[in-house]
Write a structure and sequence with these properties.
CATH topology of the domain at 45-146 in chain B: Fusion Protein Consisting Of Minor Coat Protein, Glycine Rich Linker, Tola, And A His Tag, Chain: A, Domain 2
Distance between the termini of chain A: 88 Å
Structural class of chain A: alpha+beta
Number of strands of chain A: 31
Largest sheet of chain B: 3 strands, antiparallel
Number of helices of chain A: 5
Distance between the termini of chain B: 39 Å
CATH architecture of the domain at 45-146 in chain B: 2-Layer Sandwich
Strand content of chain A: 35-45%
Radius of gyration of chain A: 29 Å
Structural class of chain B: alpha+beta
Order of helices and strands of chain B: EHHEEHHHE
Shape of chain B: globular
CATH class of the domain at 45-146 in chain B: Alpha Beta
Number of helices of chain B: 5
Largest interface: A-B, 66 and 74 residues
Oligomer: heterodimer
Shape of chain A: globular
Strand content of chain B: 15-25%
Number of strands of chain B: 4
Helix content of chain B: 25-40%
């Protein structure tokens, strides 16, 4: 009898246990899809890098200002005014009081210090904090000569951009462009270079020869550009660090728009001979030239895909100027633009997903993008005249130049550089000391 | 131009030691009968789900310019108090978080949304707390146009 009771109790407990297991196993957590959001800059607090000496303190302040300006100019961040800070930079130490930064709605916080080391170098350390998660997101220490403090700032901004967006930054880069001066009828055009934020402008040529279409090497600190010497166009190679230049080629007829291959070993360009213009490729190592197109039409403005396997260019072979894509050996040519108007100056994004172009339709110039298959055309900017798009090395931002109309007396015609995000937002003028045209964006500086 | 002489050192996250993850305030102990009260078939009504979406939407910052943003789905596991406040937001896919910088950026963005003071209190039915004290959110931008 007793044994039977024990067995019944055991059975009941076992069933209860099974029931509990069933209840736990059947428990399901709530799941919800979030499908709506907003597009707005991320509020970020960039404190001055704290310096132990007045000079280091000043450099820490200057670095922070450039970092904040870089981030703000991207359109993806909104630096918070320092006057709003509750906790001061020198009190942050190694652990911010996150509640103080939540109070001013900062989502990111940048803190750090600047030190002038005994060997004369400037060292900057920074940390990026996630205010809501109360955790460090990034931290780096960088050192350089004090005169290169702006590059430290750009590198810090790049690190922050990469950690927050997941994509490489583009702040430690340069822009080469044509600096223009003088009346429209006697325009002086000189090769110039500056940091991407417009600082450190340097003029590279003296203006005696007309220069056109500068382009950066993707792998070396070199620029190609065209210059007219004794009224003959030549393609030059200019070393940015040494200032030395050499003639790449002295081609018969007209030469247009040389552009490097992604590996830096080749240059693709168009040559005009015998009344027709075709695409040619030159191997810079042995100067061997290969003709890639051969039609009676005008084929110009070639640009490689980032993997170097394809080339986009524009051609009027179909009756109007349109965009085409072909293999890098000239085979499998396909037209990709079919919209109204004329398309020109295609440039393949370093990200590979888009081709930027200039479009002329009903007297209006536009800068736009479309996929390499010709889908999803989007106009990013339009005006009286604008052209010459160039990509930031991360494929996120385009720069181009815009020219104002001239009046009947020849006044006006000012030409300036602009940048725009690939979403079509954040259109901004890039301020230069003189008129500026034909920009080309460098890769990230090594 | 003078080349920059530089050294870049990754500053250790633990030395000095910042917090590696968000603090988790103590969650009020769930009543003992919680397990038995949870309903495996529990679902929010459409309007209740929309209310949650509308609460989080103003704080979820998406970036339509990011490469492949429309295919970047992120899941968060939330721990909530009885009044609907998010007290912890975990990113379950740790492997991808640590290896894919774009996923990590998207996951951090989603986490900032639910930890934002403006959006961290979700309108959920208190009498059903057992069914949503752990909630999974999937942030899915595929229908958000550039």
């Amino acid at each position: 009898m007793m044994m039977r009771r024990i067995a019944d109790v055991a059975r009941t407990l076992a069933l209860s246990a099974c029931g509990l297991l069933v209840a736990v196993a059947a428990h399901a957590d709530l799941r919800i899809d979030i499908t709506q959001g907003v597009q707005q800059p991320i509020p970020i607090a960039v404190t001055d890098l704290v310096g132990a000496s007045p000079e280091a303190q000043r450099m820490g302040h200057d670095i922070s200002q450039v970092v904040a300006a870089d981030l703000e100019r991207s359109g993806l961040f909104r630096p918070i005014e320092q006057q709003a800070f509750v906790q001061q930079a020198d009190a942050i130490g190694v652990q911010p009081r996150f509640q103080d930064w939540r109070l001013i709605n900062a989502q990111g916080l940048v803190s750090g210090n600047a030190t002038l080391e005994p060997d004369g170098r400037l060292r900057a350390e920074f940390r990026l904090w996630d205010v809501f998660a109360e955790a460090q997101m990034e931290g780096q220490s960088l050192a350089t000569q004090p005169q290169s403090w702006r590059r430290i700032a750009h590198k810090i901004a790049d690190a922050i951009y990469k950690r927050v967006t997941g994509e490489n930054g583009y702040f430690d880069t340069e822009i080469v462009y044509i600096a223009e001066s003088g009346p429209q009828t006697r325009r002086i055009k000189r090769l110039a270079i500056m940091d991407q934020d417009g600082a450190n402008v340097r003029i590279l040529t003296d203006g005696r020869a007309l220069v056109l279409t500068p382009r950066f090497s993707p792998t070396a600190r070199e620029i190609t550009y065209m210059s007219y010497f004794n009224d003959r166009p030549r393609v030059y190679l200019f070393n940015i660090d040494t200032g030395q230049q050499e003639v790449v080629g002295d081609f018969p007829g007209m030469t247009f728009a040389p552009r490097f291959s992604p590996d830096g070993n080749k240059v693709v360009m168009s040559l005009s001979t015998g009344g027709k213009t075709d695409i040619y490729e030159m191997d810079l190592r042995n100067k061997h030239v290969t003709q890639l197109t051969n039609t009676p039409a005008i084929d110009t403005s070639p640009s490689y895909s980032p993997d170097g396997r394809r080339i986009t260019f524009n051609s009027d072979r179909g009756g109007s100027q349109q965009l085409y894509v072909m293999n890098a050996d000239g085979s499998s040519v396909q037209r990709i633009s079919f919209g109204a108007g004329r398309y020109a100056t295609p440039v393949w994004s370093p990200r590979g997903d888009l081709i930027a172009f200039t479009k002329l339709e009903q007297g209006q110039f536009s800068i736009g993008v479309m996929s390499p298959e010709g889908k999803g055309e989007r106009i990013l900017s339009s005006s009286f005249q604008e052209e010459g798009p160039t990509w930031a090395p991360n494929g996120r931002v385009l720069m181009f130049f815009r020219q104002q109309p001239t009046d009947s007396s020849g006044r006006g015609g000012a030409v300036h550089l602009y940048s725009v995000d690939i979403t079509g937002k954040n259109l901004r003028e890039v301020v230069t000391p003189s008129d500026a045209s034909d920009p080309a964006w460098s890769p990230l500086i090594p | 131009m003078k080349m920059m002489e530089k050294t870049v050192t990754q500053l250790n996250q633990n030395k000095p030691a910042p917090k590696p993850s968000p603090p988790v305030p103590p969650v009020p102990p769930a009543p003992q009968q919680t397990a038995s009260l949870s309903n495996p078939n529990f679902k929010l009504s459409s309007s209740e789900e929309d209310a949650v979406r509308h609460t989080i939407a103003p704080c979820w910052n998406i970036d339509p310019g990011a490469a492949g943003y429309q295919s970047m789905q992120v899941e968060l596991k939330l721990t909530l108090t009885r009044d609907g406040t998010v007290v912890a937001a975990e990113i379950p896919n740790v492997g991808r978080y640590n290896s894919d910088s774009r996923y990590r950026a998207a996951a951090d963005s989603a986490r900032r949304a639910v930890l934002n003071d403006r959006c961290h209190k979700l309108p959920l039915p208190p009498d059903q707390y057992a069914n949503w004290q752990t909630t999974y959110l999937t942030f899915d931008p595929k229908d958000i146009l550039q």
